[in-house]
Structure formats: structure tokens, C-alpha cells
Write a structure and sequence with these properties.
TIM Barrel; alpha/beta; globular; Urease, subunit C, domain 1; 2 domains; nine-stranded mixed β-sheet
């Protein structure tokens, strides 16, 4: 299909020279961007009658699709269920794991479809899942709705010595594998998923939960498998001060240093959070070309310490790839990547009392181009360039939050939100058209979400404490 996005007010290309094209057009054919430039130039080269679809870009702003490098698709039916006054450890052990443990295959499919729908409608065109119990269900949901994504089977093999009081008697067996070998067998099955689909939008990676939920042996076997299979590896690490302090006490070093000593701080690794990074570890991350997924929304909600402790500006300055993730709906709440871009630009200006920290342009790179680099997809996505896949987002620049349009980059980062997205293309296919998903029935999905979320809440037995009087 040949598509013309015509007469766009501003195109934020994120190309090598970081062009911002005023009054531009984009030509898409067979899923690829074949031409991007000034409208008058493209009008001379192409006749409008030759296009299958012409999208009017008047007053609009076009960007590359946003790339979310750390999400929990299975958490999408838990939004608002967990309390907002607990730390990462309590949140994980007492709420997230019990919810995760009762998730069925159908729950995971519904949750993933809902998650992908929200991402597309707010401009995210590609994601990296943290790992699911039923990764094929996540892949099927992503394929159905038309998003680009990487799925995985999250595994753990090092259960806590003291079982949390909120865990059911069978939860331990639901969450943890009996050995690293058993976990690797399951991951190998997951890596076959990408072959099940007739497109290159769906990929599978090696995903382990990370932190102390995994033995050293599992870390090493998982990385060896990812290296042999030529795919990425994803896990959580250095996500809280408590985790860093426990690592120091147990191993004599913080988590990133230990990953380096273990031999898994590598180029094909994406580390979620990395909030607690020592000054000496900045160089380790940059020199090893390990990738970081900063999740500002969950850092704020779970008080991870990103502002006072996070070394993300220093990592960027050192040349490290720092991308952005929304984490999960219960951890962060919002799956709007525009909000994550805004937070990443604002947190360090305030906490460091330094207005030069992470300018708007750099924050936007974190949500697009650096995400593509983290996911080993930079040759196809992350920017609007000729020859790349047509993953394009169009914002309505006539919304109140966009005007006056003095600077489209600043307006996007500091004023706008994903709610002003009108059109989204993934691989040259229009998946959001006039704010509506094109490949699924939104009302039907929302009805399914209502039923599934209520059933899961009841089965989990989780009841968040309320400070107000709900009547």
C-alpha cells in the first residue's frame, strides 16, 4: 500500500542530522519510508493520484513511533489495585507476585491486548516485555493489534528463604523453577515463538526476572543462550537502594559491579531500572555497551530514588544507551510514553538544581532512537528516515496543549500528551486512524477488560487499604 502523509506542520525526524522539517511530507510504500522532505519537493516527484491513501497533515506534528523498553503486559489488569505507599520490596512480594501467580493464559492475552491497545493509541509502536507466564499469548495479542514487540518467558529459580505471608501454598511452585536447567528449557521454547508469525514485527528474547530471584548459574546460562541465539537478554537490576545495600553486604559490591564480575554486563543486555549505579559503574556500563531502561514513572511512585541517586544524565554523557520504559500499570500507572519523556527531562533539572540536565531533545531521543538501539532494531525503527520501516506517529497540533506551536520539540515534551495522537502507522500499516484502533473493536475489548479485571481481583484476594470512605 502506498501512503502519503501530506503537508505536515513539523516532522521530527530524529535522523542523523536531527532535521525538523517544517511543511513536510512522508511517502510510504510497502511498509517502508521511501521519501521524507519538504512538501513542495515531494509534490513535484509524486502525483497524489498514485497513492492508495492520502493523510492530511495540516497543523499536525509527526514523530517516530515511541519505543517502550520495559513493560509488564500481564499487569495491565491490575491498575489501581496495589497501594501507592509501599516500597519496591513490599510491592513486589506482597502484591505483584500474588497477582502474577493467579494469571491464566486467557487473562494474559486480554491483559496484553489491552496493554498494546493503550500503547498504540498514545503513540508507542514497539515494546520489550519483561517476560510473561504465557508469552505466546502476548505475541498473539501484539500480532493481532499490529504493534511491534519483543516477548519473553520471565523465569526465576532462587525463592526467598522466608515465604511472604500473603502467598498461597502453591504460589512458590507457580513462580519459581526448580533449577536453572528447567528455566532454560522454558526459555528455549519461547525463542521459537517469533517463527510462528508471518512477519518480522514479533521477536523473542531471553528474559529472566533478575535481582536475587535468579541464581548466578541462571544468569550465566541465560546469557550464554542469548549470545548463542543472537538475541537480547532482559532483566531487572539495581532497582532500589535496599537492593544495592543488600548486594554490598552479601557480595562486597553493588549490583552492576557484580553483573560485570559475573560476566553478564554485555552489549546485548537491557537492564531495567538501574536506579542505583555507583560513580565507578558508569564507565563499566558505557564501556561494555550494556543498555539501560529507565522507568521514571515507577521510580517516582515506588520512591526508587531516581532524582537524588540516579546516574542517568552521567550515563548519557558517557555515551551509554539509556532508553525509557513504562514498567507496569500498578508500578507507574501511565502507559503514555510522552509522560515518561517529560519526566526524564524534568526529574534531574529539579533534583540537581541544574536546568541544563537532559534537555527536551535528548529526552525525546531516549523515547525513540535510543530505544531502537537498546532493542537492536536501530536499522529499521527509531527515526523517520528513507529506507526505514514506516513506524510513524501523528499528533494533532491544533489541540490546546500544542498551541502556540513555537517549538514542536518543547511543546511535545513539556506540554503535550499521547492523548493528542490521531494516527499511527506500524510497518506502513495504519493501526490507529482518527484516534480509533483499526484492527480490533475497542468497545468489545473494554468489555472483556471489565470482566477479566473483576475476576482476577476476586481470585487474587488482594484488597488495597483505603484512606478515604468509599460508599
Amino acid at each position: 500500500m502506498q501512503i502519503l502523509i501530506d503537508n505536515i506542520e513539523y516532522i521530527l525526524t530524529l535522523d542523523r542530522s536531527r532535521r525538523v522539517i517544517h511543511n513536510g511530507s512522508i511517502v510510504v510504500n510497502a511498509g517502508k519510508i521511501v521519501r521524507v522532505g519538504k512538501k513542495n519537493e515531494i509534490d513535484r516527484e509524486f502525483a497524489k493520484s498514485s497513492f492508495d491513501r492520502v493523510i492530511d497533515g495540516l497543523h499536525n506534528v509527526a514523530t517516530p513511533g515511541f519505543i517502550d523498553t520495559h513493560i509488564h503486559t500481564h499487569e495491565h489488569l491490575s491498575r489501581g489495585l496495589f497501594p501507592d505507599n509501599i516500597n519496591t520490596s513490599a510491592w513486589t512480594a506482597d502484591w505483584a507476585y500474588p497477582f502474577y501467580g493467579i494469571t491464566t493464559e486467557q487473562d494474559e492475552y486480554t491483559s496484553a491486548l489491552f496493554c498494546c491497545a493503550e500503547m498504540l493509541k498514545t503513540g508507542t509502536t514497539c515494546f520489550l516485555d519483561s517476560g510473561a507466564r504465557f508469552p505466546k499469548s502476548v505475541a498473539e495479542a501484539a500480532d493481532k493489534i499490529g504493534i511491534r514487540g519483543i516477548v519473553g518467558r520471565r523465569v526465576m529459580d532462587n525463592p526467598p528463604q522466608k515465604i511472604p505471608s500473603k502467598w498461597s501454598s502453591d504460589l512458590l511452585g507457580e513462580l519459581y523453577f526448580s533449577s536453572p536447567e528447567q528455566a532454560i528449557i522454558e526459555i528455549k521454547k519461547t525463542l521459537e515463538i517469533s517463527k510462528s508469525f508471518g512477519n518480522k514485527r514479533i521477536r523473542a528474547w531471553v528474559t529472566i526476572n533478575g535481582k536475587d530471584t535468579c541464581t548466578d548459574e541462571l544468569y550465566l546460562k541465560a546469557w550464554e543462550l542469548s549470545n548463542e541465539s543472537k538475541v537480547g537478554m532482559h532483566f531487572h537490576s539495581a532497582s532500589s537502594l535496599k537492593e544495592a545495600q543488600e548486594s554490598q553486604k552479601k557480595r562486597g559490591m553493588w549490583p552492576i559491579s557484580y553483573l560485570n564480575k559475573l560476566g553478564v554486563l554485555k552489549e546485548n543486555v537491557v537492564i531495567a531500572h538501574a536506579t542505583m549505579v555507583a560513580d565507578s559503574e558508569i564507565k563499566l556500563i558505557a564501556e561494555n555497551n550494556a543498555k539501560i531502561s529507565f522507568c521514571p514513572g515507577s521510580a517516582l511512585k515506588l520512591a526508587k530514588g531516581a532524582g537524588p541517586y540516579g546516574k542517568y544524565p552521567e550515563l548519557l554523557k558517557a555515551g551509554a544507551v539509556v532508553s525509557l520504559g513504562c514498567d507496569g500499570t500498578s508500578a507507574a500507572g501511565s502507559f503514555d510514553m510522552v509522560r515518561q519523556v517529560y519526566l526524564s527531562s524534568g526529574i534531574f533539572k529539579d533534583s540537581r538544581l541544574d536546568e541544563s540536565m537532559i534537555p527536551a531533545e535528548q529526552a525525546l531521543e531516549m523515547g525513540t532512537l535510543l530505544g531502537a538501539r537498546a532493542l537492536q532494531w536501530e536499522d529499521e525503527i527509531g527515526s523517520i528516515e528513507e529506507g526505514k520501516s514506516a513506524d510513524v506517529v501523528i499528533f494533532n497540533g491544533r489541540e490546546f496543549e500544542w498551541l502556540p506551536l513555537n517549538d514542536p520539540v518543547q511543546n511535545l515534551v513539556y506540554s503535550a500528551s499521547g492523548n493528542s495522537v490521531t494516527t499511527v502507522l506500524v510497518d506502513g500499516v495504519i493501526v490507529v486512524d482518527n484516534k480509533k484502533l483499526t484492527r480490533i473493536d475497542e468497545d468489545e475489548l473494554l468489555s472483556q477488560v471489565d470482566v477479566a479485571a473483576k475476576e482476577m481481583k476476586e481470585r487474587s484476594g488482594l484488597k488495597p487499604p483505603r484512606s478515604w470512605n468509599y460508599v
